[in-house]
Amino acid sequence: MNGLPEFSAAASNAIFLAFLVGIPVYGFFKGVKVYESFVEGAKEGFEVAVRIIPYLVAILVVVGMFRASKGLDLLAGLFPDIMHSLGLSPEVVSLILTRPLSGGASLGLLGEIIAKHGADSYQARLAGVIMGSTETTLYVVAVYFGAVSVARTRYAVHAGLIADAAGVCAAIIICLAFFA
Amino acid sequence: MLNIIWLALLVGSVAIAVATGQVREVVVSVTESAVSAFKLALGLTGIMALWLGIMKIAEDSGLVAAFTRMIAPLMRFLFPRIPDGHPALGSMAMNMVANMFGLNNAATPMGIKAMEDLDTLNSRKGTATDEMCMFLAINTSSIQLIPAGAIALLAGGGSADPTVIVFPALIATCVSTVAGVTAARLLSRMRRFRDNSEKGGKDERLA
User: What DSSP element (H or E) covers A3?
Assistant: First the structure.
Protein backbone atom coordinates (compact mmCIF):
# COMPACT_ATOMS: atom_id res chain seq x y z
CA MET A 1 0.00 0.00 0.00
CA ASN A 2 2.92 2.36 0.58
CA GLY A 3 3.43 2.89 -3.10
CA LEU A 4 -0.07 4.23 -3.51
CA PRO A 5 0.63 7.95 -3.00
CA GLU A 6 3.19 7.86 -5.79
CA PHE A 7 0.94 5.70 -7.89
CA SER A 8 -2.05 7.96 -7.38
CA ALA A 9 0.02 11.05 -8.16
CA ALA A 10 1.32 9.38 -11.31
CA ALA A 11 -2.18 8.30 -12.34
CA SER A 12 -3.50 11.81 -11.75
CA ASN A 13 -0.74 13.29 -13.88
CA ALA A 14 -1.33 10.73 -16.63
CA ILE A 15 -5.03 11.51 -16.74
CA PHE A 16 -4.34 15.25 -16.60
CA LEU A 17 -2.06 14.97 -19.62
CA ALA A 18 -4.46 12.61 -21.39
CA PHE A 19 -7.09 15.34 -21.18
CA LEU A 20 -4.75 18.21 -22.00
CA VAL A 21 -2.80 16.58 -24.85
CA GLY A 22 -5.05 13.74 -25.91
CA ILE A 23 -8.05 15.92 -26.73
CA PRO A 24 -6.22 18.31 -29.10
CA VAL A 25 -4.41 15.39 -30.80
CA TYR A 26 -7.70 13.56 -31.30
CA GLY A 27 -9.27 16.79 -32.58
CA PHE A 28 -6.43 17.34 -35.04
CA PHE A 29 -6.95 13.90 -36.59
CA LYS A 30 -10.68 14.60 -36.79
CA GLY A 31 -9.89 17.69 -38.88
CA VAL A 32 -10.56 20.29 -36.19
CA LYS A 33 -8.56 23.53 -36.43
CA VAL A 34 -7.32 22.99 -32.89
CA TYR A 35 -5.72 26.36 -32.20
CA GLU A 36 -8.70 28.34 -33.48
CA SER A 37 -11.09 26.10 -31.61
CA PHE A 38 -9.12 26.42 -28.37
CA VAL A 39 -9.03 30.21 -28.50
CA GLU A 40 -12.73 30.34 -29.31
CA GLY A 41 -13.56 28.32 -26.21
CA ALA A 42 -11.01 30.02 -23.97
CA LYS A 43 -12.44 33.48 -24.72
CA GLU A 44 -15.27 32.71 -22.35
CA GLY A 45 -12.94 32.21 -19.38
CA PHE A 46 -12.77 35.81 -18.26
CA GLU A 47 -16.48 36.39 -18.72
CA VAL A 48 -17.30 33.43 -16.49
CA ALA A 49 -14.84 34.53 -13.82
CA VAL A 50 -16.35 38.00 -13.70
CA ARG A 51 -19.86 36.59 -13.62
CA ILE A 52 -19.19 34.55 -10.46
CA ILE A 53 -17.64 37.45 -8.50
CA PRO A 54 -20.89 38.64 -6.85
CA TYR A 55 -21.82 35.09 -5.81
CA LEU A 56 -18.36 34.41 -4.39
CA VAL A 57 -18.29 37.72 -2.50
CA ALA A 58 -21.72 36.98 -0.99
CA ILE A 59 -20.68 33.55 0.28
CA LEU A 60 -17.06 34.20 1.26
CA VAL A 61 -17.83 37.37 3.23
CA VAL A 62 -20.41 35.73 5.51
CA VAL A 63 -18.27 32.61 5.89
CA GLY A 64 -15.28 34.81 6.75
CA MET A 65 -17.34 36.73 9.32
CA PHE A 66 -18.60 33.53 10.90
CA ARG A 67 -15.10 32.10 11.18
CA ALA A 68 -13.76 35.36 12.64
CA SER A 69 -16.57 35.41 15.23
CA LYS A 70 -15.33 32.06 16.59
CA GLY A 71 -18.90 30.80 16.23
CA LEU A 72 -17.56 27.48 14.99
CA ASP A 73 -15.55 26.91 18.17
CA LEU A 74 -18.72 27.63 20.12
CA LEU A 75 -20.75 25.10 18.10
CA ALA A 76 -17.92 22.54 18.20
CA GLY A 77 -17.98 22.63 22.00
CA LEU A 78 -21.68 21.75 22.25
CA PHE A 79 -22.71 18.28 23.47
CA PRO A 80 -19.16 17.21 24.48
CA ASP A 81 -20.41 13.91 25.97
CA ILE A 82 -22.20 12.77 22.82
CA MET A 83 -19.26 13.79 20.64
CA HIS A 84 -16.82 12.00 22.92
CA SER A 85 -18.81 8.78 22.83
CA LEU A 86 -18.72 8.92 19.01
CA GLY A 87 -14.94 9.23 19.16
CA LEU A 88 -14.97 12.85 18.00
CA SER A 89 -12.52 15.33 19.47
CA PRO A 90 -13.57 19.02 19.45
CA GLU A 91 -11.13 19.63 16.56
CA VAL A 92 -12.85 16.98 14.42
CA VAL A 93 -16.23 18.52 15.20
CA SER A 94 -14.81 21.88 14.05
CA LEU A 95 -13.62 20.23 10.86
CA ILE A 96 -17.06 18.73 10.20
CA LEU A 97 -18.72 22.13 10.67
CA THR A 98 -16.10 24.00 8.63
CA ARG A 99 -16.03 21.57 5.72
CA PRO A 100 -19.12 22.77 3.80
CA LEU A 101 -18.10 26.41 4.31
CA SER A 102 -14.43 26.59 3.42
CA GLY A 103 -12.08 24.15 1.69
CA GLY A 104 -8.88 25.98 2.67
CA ALA A 105 -9.88 26.34 6.33
CA SER A 106 -10.87 22.69 6.62
CA LEU A 107 -7.55 21.54 5.11
CA GLY A 108 -5.86 23.79 7.68
CA LEU A 109 -7.85 22.13 10.45
CA LEU A 110 -6.84 18.69 9.16
CA GLY A 111 -3.22 19.85 9.38
CA GLU A 112 -3.77 20.99 12.97
CA ILE A 113 -5.38 17.68 13.95
CA ILE A 114 -2.43 15.77 12.47
CA ALA A 115 0.02 18.02 14.31
CA LYS A 116 -1.83 17.69 17.63
CA HIS A 117 -2.81 14.00 17.66
CA GLY A 118 -0.17 12.51 15.33
CA ALA A 119 -0.53 11.36 11.72
CA ASP A 120 -1.35 7.76 12.66
CA SER A 121 -3.87 8.66 15.37
CA TYR A 122 -7.53 7.75 15.20
CA GLN A 123 -8.53 11.44 15.05
CA ALA A 124 -6.21 12.14 12.10
CA ARG A 125 -7.48 9.15 10.13
CA LEU A 126 -11.10 10.02 10.85
CA ALA A 127 -10.47 13.63 9.80
CA GLY A 128 -8.78 12.42 6.60
CA VAL A 129 -11.72 10.17 5.72
CA ILE A 130 -14.16 13.01 6.40
CA MET A 131 -12.14 15.35 4.15
CA GLY A 132 -12.12 12.70 1.43
CA SER A 133 -15.84 12.06 1.45
CA THR A 134 -17.29 15.57 1.70
CA GLU A 135 -17.10 18.74 -0.34
CA THR A 136 -17.09 22.52 0.14
CA THR A 137 -20.78 22.67 -0.69
CA LEU A 138 -21.40 26.41 -0.36
CA TYR A 139 -18.37 27.28 -2.50
CA VAL A 140 -19.38 24.84 -5.24
CA VAL A 141 -22.94 26.22 -5.20
CA ALA A 142 -21.65 29.81 -5.47
CA VAL A 143 -19.28 29.07 -8.36
CA TYR A 144 -21.50 26.73 -10.38
CA PHE A 145 -24.74 28.65 -9.99
CA GLY A 146 -22.91 31.98 -10.25
CA ALA A 147 -21.61 30.97 -13.67
CA VAL A 148 -25.19 30.77 -14.99
CA SER A 149 -26.46 33.67 -12.83
CA VAL A 150 -28.81 31.44 -10.86
CA ALA A 151 -29.67 32.89 -7.44
CA ARG A 152 -32.82 30.82 -6.76
CA THR A 153 -31.10 27.53 -6.00
CA ARG A 154 -34.25 25.64 -4.91
CA TYR A 155 -33.19 22.41 -3.17
CA ALA A 156 -29.57 22.22 -4.40
CA VAL A 157 -28.11 23.35 -1.06
CA HIS A 158 -30.36 20.97 0.88
CA ALA A 159 -29.27 18.02 -1.27
CA GLY A 160 -25.60 19.04 -0.99
CA LEU A 161 -25.74 19.35 2.78
CA ILE A 162 -27.60 16.04 3.09
CA ALA A 163 -24.83 14.42 1.03
CA ASP A 164 -22.21 16.01 3.31
CA ALA A 165 -24.02 14.85 6.43
CA ALA A 166 -24.34 11.31 5.05
CA GLY A 167 -20.63 11.34 4.19
CA VAL A 168 -19.71 12.43 7.72
CA CYS A 169 -21.97 9.81 9.35
CA ALA A 170 -20.58 7.11 7.07
CA ALA A 171 -17.02 8.25 7.83
CA ILE A 172 -17.63 8.09 11.61
CA ILE A 173 -19.18 4.60 11.44
CA ILE A 174 -16.59 3.22 9.02
CA CYS A 175 -13.68 4.62 11.02
CA LEU A 176 -15.09 3.11 14.23
CA ALA A 177 -15.20 -0.23 12.42
CA PHE A 178 -11.76 0.07 10.76
CA PHE A 179 -9.53 2.00 13.12
CA ALA A 180 -11.00 2.04 16.61
CA MET B 1 -32.34 27.89 1.74
CA LEU B 2 -29.43 30.09 0.74
CA ASN B 3 -31.39 33.15 1.85
CA ILE B 4 -31.74 31.69 5.33
CA ILE B 5 -28.17 30.34 5.58
CA TRP B 6 -26.76 33.63 4.33
CA LEU B 7 -28.73 35.81 6.73
CA ALA B 8 -28.12 33.41 9.63
CA LEU B 9 -24.35 33.52 9.06
CA LEU B 10 -24.45 37.31 8.70
CA VAL B 11 -26.51 38.07 11.80
CA GLY B 12 -25.23 35.10 13.81
CA SER B 13 -21.59 36.14 13.31
CA VAL B 14 -22.24 39.60 14.71
CA ALA B 15 -24.26 38.28 17.65
CA ILE B 16 -21.56 35.73 18.49
CA ALA B 17 -18.81 38.30 17.98
CA VAL B 18 -20.45 40.59 20.52
CA ALA B 19 -20.68 37.69 22.98
CA THR B 20 -17.11 36.45 22.44
CA GLY B 21 -15.49 39.88 22.08
CA GLN B 22 -14.42 39.21 18.50
CA VAL B 23 -16.11 42.28 16.99
CA ARG B 24 -12.87 43.80 15.71
CA GLU B 25 -11.80 40.54 14.04
CA VAL B 26 -15.20 40.19 12.36
CA VAL B 27 -15.08 43.74 11.01
CA VAL B 28 -11.57 43.21 9.65
CA SER B 29 -12.58 39.90 8.06
CA VAL B 30 -15.31 41.53 5.93
CA THR B 31 -12.95 43.55 3.77
CA GLU B 32 -10.40 40.76 3.64
CA SER B 33 -12.97 38.20 2.47
CA ALA B 34 -14.45 40.51 -0.15
CA VAL B 35 -11.00 41.19 -1.61
CA SER B 36 -10.03 37.52 -1.52
CA ALA B 37 -13.32 36.52 -3.22
CA PHE B 38 -12.47 38.86 -6.08
CA LYS B 39 -8.90 37.53 -6.29
CA LEU B 40 -10.16 33.96 -6.22
CA ALA B 41 -12.54 34.63 -9.12
CA LEU B 42 -9.85 36.35 -11.16
CA GLY B 43 -7.40 33.60 -10.28
CA LEU B 44 -9.82 31.14 -11.84
CA THR B 45 -9.70 32.99 -15.16
CA GLY B 46 -6.53 31.39 -16.50
CA ILE B 47 -7.50 27.84 -15.60
CA MET B 48 -11.01 28.48 -16.79
CA ALA B 49 -9.83 29.76 -20.18
CA LEU B 50 -7.44 26.81 -20.56
CA TRP B 51 -10.02 24.12 -19.89
CA LEU B 52 -12.86 25.83 -21.70
CA GLY B 53 -10.53 25.92 -24.71
CA ILE B 54 -9.75 22.21 -24.40
CA MET B 55 -13.46 21.49 -23.93
CA LYS B 56 -14.24 23.38 -27.13
CA ILE B 57 -11.80 21.18 -29.06
CA ALA B 58 -13.35 18.08 -27.47
CA GLU B 59 -16.76 19.30 -28.56
CA ASP B 60 -15.76 20.27 -32.12
CA SER B 61 -14.00 16.94 -32.67
CA GLY B 62 -17.04 14.92 -31.66
CA LEU B 63 -15.24 13.52 -28.61
CA VAL B 64 -17.86 14.82 -26.20
CA ALA B 65 -20.63 13.28 -28.28
CA ALA B 66 -18.83 9.92 -28.42
CA PHE B 67 -18.21 9.99 -24.68
CA THR B 68 -21.84 10.93 -24.08
CA ARG B 69 -23.02 7.86 -26.01
CA MET B 70 -20.68 5.69 -23.96
CA ILE B 71 -22.11 6.67 -20.58
CA ALA B 72 -25.65 7.27 -21.81
CA PRO B 73 -27.35 4.62 -19.61
CA LEU B 74 -26.01 6.13 -16.38
CA MET B 75 -26.82 9.66 -17.46
CA ARG B 76 -30.31 8.66 -18.55
CA PHE B 77 -30.90 7.32 -15.04
CA LEU B 78 -29.61 10.50 -13.36
CA PHE B 79 -31.05 12.99 -15.84
CA PRO B 80 -34.08 11.36 -17.48
CA ARG B 81 -35.46 14.62 -18.88
CA ILE B 82 -32.37 15.70 -20.82
CA PRO B 83 -32.77 14.76 -24.49
CA ASP B 84 -30.37 12.10 -25.84
CA GLY B 85 -27.16 13.52 -27.24
CA HIS B 86 -27.54 16.94 -25.58
CA PRO B 87 -24.12 18.58 -24.96
CA ALA B 88 -24.90 18.97 -21.24
CA LEU B 89 -24.65 15.18 -20.86
CA GLY B 90 -21.13 15.23 -22.28
CA SER B 91 -19.84 18.15 -20.25
CA MET B 92 -21.36 16.77 -17.04
CA ALA B 93 -19.77 13.38 -17.68
CA MET B 94 -16.37 14.98 -18.30
CA ASN B 95 -16.72 16.98 -15.09
CA MET B 96 -17.50 13.80 -13.14
CA VAL B 97 -14.52 11.96 -14.60
CA ALA B 98 -12.21 14.88 -13.77
CA ASN B 99 -13.64 14.94 -10.24
CA MET B 100 -13.18 11.21 -9.71
CA PHE B 101 -9.49 11.47 -10.52
CA GLY B 102 -9.02 14.55 -8.35
CA LEU B 103 -8.35 16.95 -11.22
CA ASN B 104 -10.01 19.86 -9.44
CA ASN B 105 -8.49 22.44 -11.77
CA ALA B 106 -10.12 20.79 -14.76
CA ALA B 107 -13.30 19.73 -13.02
CA THR B 108 -14.47 23.24 -12.11
CA PRO B 109 -14.34 24.73 -15.65
CA MET B 110 -15.96 21.56 -17.03
CA GLY B 111 -18.66 21.79 -14.38
CA ILE B 112 -19.27 25.42 -15.25
CA LYS B 113 -19.50 24.47 -18.92
CA ALA B 114 -22.01 21.79 -17.90
CA MET B 115 -24.07 24.35 -16.00
CA GLU B 116 -24.13 26.60 -19.07
CA ASP B 117 -25.23 23.67 -21.22
CA LEU B 118 -27.92 22.83 -18.66
CA ASP B 119 -29.03 26.45 -18.69
CA THR B 120 -29.88 26.17 -22.40
CA LEU B 121 -32.68 23.82 -21.29
CA ASN B 122 -33.82 26.23 -18.57
CA SER B 123 -37.14 27.90 -19.31
CA ARG B 124 -36.87 30.09 -16.21
CA LYS B 125 -33.49 31.83 -16.19
CA GLY B 126 -32.18 32.63 -12.75
CA THR B 127 -33.91 29.64 -11.17
CA ALA B 128 -32.21 26.25 -10.82
CA THR B 129 -33.67 23.33 -12.78
CA ASP B 130 -34.04 19.82 -11.36
CA GLU B 131 -31.10 18.74 -13.51
CA MET B 132 -28.89 21.54 -12.14
CA CYS B 133 -29.78 20.53 -8.57
CA MET B 134 -29.01 16.87 -9.30
CA PHE B 135 -25.69 17.80 -10.91
CA LEU B 136 -24.84 20.00 -7.92
CA ALA B 137 -25.75 17.21 -5.50
CA ILE B 138 -23.39 14.83 -7.32
CA ASN B 139 -20.63 17.43 -7.34
CA THR B 140 -20.97 18.44 -3.70
CA SER B 141 -21.06 14.82 -2.56
CA SER B 142 -17.39 14.45 -3.54
CA ILE B 143 -16.96 11.62 -6.01
CA GLN B 144 -13.17 11.69 -5.78
CA LEU B 145 -11.77 8.14 -5.81
CA ILE B 146 -8.54 8.95 -3.99
CA PRO B 147 -8.44 11.79 -1.41
CA ALA B 148 -5.08 13.10 -2.55
CA GLY B 149 -5.07 16.24 -0.37
CA ALA B 150 -5.72 14.36 2.87
CA ILE B 151 -3.17 11.64 1.97
CA ALA B 152 -0.54 14.28 1.26
CA LEU B 153 -1.13 15.93 4.66
CA LEU B 154 -0.99 12.58 6.49
CA ALA B 155 2.21 11.65 4.67
CA GLY B 156 3.66 15.08 5.41
CA GLY B 157 2.79 14.62 9.08
CA GLY B 158 4.96 11.51 9.20
CA SER B 159 2.28 8.82 8.91
CA ALA B 160 3.67 5.30 8.53
CA ASP B 161 0.74 4.38 6.31
CA PRO B 162 -1.03 7.46 4.90
CA THR B 163 -3.10 5.46 2.42
CA VAL B 164 -5.07 3.50 5.04
CA ILE B 165 -7.79 6.11 4.57
CA VAL B 166 -8.30 5.34 0.86
CA PHE B 167 -10.71 2.43 1.25
CA PRO B 168 -12.76 3.92 4.13
CA ALA B 169 -12.97 7.24 2.27
CA LEU B 170 -14.13 5.45 -0.87
CA ILE B 171 -16.99 3.77 0.99
CA ALA B 172 -17.95 7.04 2.72
CA THR B 173 -17.86 8.84 -0.63
CA CYS B 174 -20.18 6.26 -2.17
CA VAL B 175 -22.58 6.68 0.75
CA SER B 176 -22.55 10.48 0.39
CA THR B 177 -23.07 10.32 -3.38
CA VAL B 178 -25.98 7.89 -3.09
CA ALA B 179 -27.47 10.10 -0.35
CA GLY B 180 -27.03 13.23 -2.48
CA VAL B 181 -28.62 11.68 -5.57
CA THR B 182 -31.49 10.21 -3.52
CA ALA B 183 -32.05 13.50 -1.70
CA ALA B 184 -32.12 15.44 -4.98
CA ARG B 185 -34.58 12.98 -6.50
CA LEU B 186 -36.90 13.05 -3.47
CA LEU B 187 -36.68 16.82 -2.95
CA SER B 188 -37.57 17.41 -6.61
CA ARG B 189 -40.91 15.74 -5.91
CA MET B 190 -41.72 17.85 -2.88
CA ARG B 191 -44.48 20.37 -3.43
CA ARG B 192 -42.53 23.38 -2.22
CA PHE B 193 -39.68 22.64 -4.63
CA ARG B 194 -41.76 21.56 -7.63
CA ASP B 195 -40.53 23.09 -10.88
CA ASN B 196 -43.65 25.07 -11.87
CA SER B 197 -42.18 26.54 -15.00
CA GLU B 198 -45.61 27.35 -16.50
CA LYS B 199 -46.93 29.11 -13.43
CA GLY B 200 -44.07 31.60 -13.47
CA GLY B 201 -43.61 33.73 -10.40
CA LYS B 202 -46.05 32.05 -8.05
CA ASP B 203 -43.66 29.72 -6.25
CA GLU B 204 -40.77 32.12 -6.31
CA ARG B 205 -41.87 33.69 -3.07
CA LEU B 206 -41.55 30.31 -1.41
CA ALA B 207 -38.08 29.62 -2.77
Answer: none
Whether B121 contacts chain A with CB within 8 A: no
Q: Where are the alpha helices (DSSP H) in B126-165?
A: 130-140, 148-156
Its pTM stands at: 0.87
Cα–Cα distances (Å) from A140 to A122, B71, B141, in that order, read: 29, 24, 11
Q: Do B136 and A5 touch (CB under 8 A)?
A: no
Report the C-alpha gap between A95 and A107 in whole angstroms.
8
pLDDT digits (tens, 9 = 90+) for B44-97: 888 889 989 998 998 899 888 888 888 888 899 999 999 988 889 989 998 998
Mean pLDDT over A139-160 rounds to 93
Report the phi/psi class of residue A149: left, alpha or beta, with left for phi > 0 and alpha for psi in -120 to 50: left
Closest partner residue to A150 among B128, B134, B159, by Cβ?
Answer: B128
Please tell me the distance from the alpha carbon of residue A70 to that of residue A73, in angstroms, as a whole number: 5
The answer to whether A8 touches B148, Cβ cutoff 8 Å, is: yes
Structure ipTM over 0.90, yes or no: no
Nearest to A140 among B22, B136, B172 (CB): B136
Contact B139 A133 (CB under 8 A): no
Residue B54 sits at the chain A interface (C-beta within 8 Å): yes
Is A140 in Cβ contact with B140 (below 8 Å)? yes
Contact assessment for residue B109 and residue B60, using Cβ atoms and an 8 Å cutoff: no
In angstroms, the separation between the Cα of residue A6 and the nearest Cα of chain B is: 10
**Residue spans of chain B under pLDDT 70:** 195-207
| Residue in B116, B154, B156 closest to A147 by CB | B116
